[in-house]
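Notes, Module 5: Reading structure tokens.

Key idea: the token line is not a picture. It is a compressed description, and you learn to read it the same way you learned to read a sequence, by spotting repeated patterns. We will look at two proteins. The first is printed below with its tokens.
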Amino acid sequence: MDEAEVALRPVTADDFWLFERQAVDPEAAGRFNWSGFRDVRATRRRFDDDGLVGPDGGVLIVVHDGAAVGTVSWSRTEYGMPAWWCWTIGIALLPDHRGRGVGTAAQRLLVGYLFDTTAAQRIEAYTDTENLAEQHALARIGFAREGVLRSTQFRAGRWRDLVMYSLLRPDHDAR
């Protein structure tokens, strides 16, 4: 896949079909992102407040071949003090666009955007220990596997382990 076919853009009101589908359709959310039905009105309220991009995080639309196919997100994570922070990123793609390199390209674009527009030194990502595709995508972007966080996500009736990855600004800049 040509990474030039993938882009990120701000959310518009016309994109709410995507959020609504991910909130009520387990297949659209994906096996590793589905943890029950969500209130889409909360997303609409936040959109009305800040367009889903604020100082503590945001959401952008993943575009592939001109169509909205998913979302990438980031949120601020603090380690003890407000001055000690990093971004935690995530992605959710519609089923037809998974396994084709779209997610890797979108996350690479998000990492570049965050390092280019914020003072972050570190970006983190977590994924289910069974989500090998996401682990490979993060490694291709340059993320380092840091370890396993035991029983941190409740999904499909049981607690799941997550793998933690990180990418530091100097490692990103060297690439």
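Here is the second protein, with the sequence above and the tokens below, as before.
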Amino acid sequence: MTPTTIIALGREALYIALLVAAPMFIAALATGLLISILQAATQINEATLSFVPKLVIMFGTLVMVGPWMITLLTDYIRRLFESIPNVIG
């Protein structure tokens, strides 16, 4: 097992992790931005106001994008397990 192989495996794992986390982060960011604009426009300064909409939007995003996330992860794990003989030997 060479250092190049280890770096390639680590890089691919980080890339997959970012791809899987991105939809949830983008949904939370967009929801937070919209709630902040709404709070600024109405001058409601309540910190807990954004919690429930973020939770609902992130749950909806998980329902919509969840199958894609699971497929991406299972494909990566399958490829990783199939490459064990090549990495070791």
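Summary for the second protein:
- The helical segments are 3-42, 51-82, 84-88.
- The chain has a mean pLDDT of 91.
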